[in-house]
Predict the 3D structure of the following.
Amino acid sequence: MGFEELLVDKEKFSSDIVLDLQDFITYFRRVIRKRGYEQIEKVQDNKISPEGLKTVLLQWQCNKEFDDYHEGKITFKILLLNAKEKKSKEKIVEGNLSLEVKAILESDRKDIWSNKSWIIFLRHFFDKFIQSERKSSLQKELKEDVSYFLESVKRYVSS
């Protein structure tokens, strides 16, 4: 495991919604793939309360290889609380949707530069003086992707 730099820590979005949950998930997966990320579902949990209200938790890890040395990792935690299914042909749910995002830029993702202390020193030198422009552009790109994902969710929920 290489060096990880936290760029976005728990940026949140929350809204009361009425939507087709399966449609939303399909849309969000498509948006993620469109930006070049591979999506891995880490957690999927559905619970139903005695009152018949649903709670759905999804946690996704999305990875994008920028080059042999850098990788972007975005974690999405999607939580649907107090969801009630409405009577209709589609599976329309009404509830509170919250999305939490965390983004990490990983350098030396193949763990080549972390064997010995002098190699670690070279890696830091390489990162600071040789790769600094590249790294800052990747940081910017990763932050823009997070903003794009949040805006896409906001647009979908408000439509």
About this structure: The two ends are 41 Å apart (CA to CA). The first strand starts at residue 3 and ends at 20. Residues 22 and 95 are 14 Å apart (CA to CA).
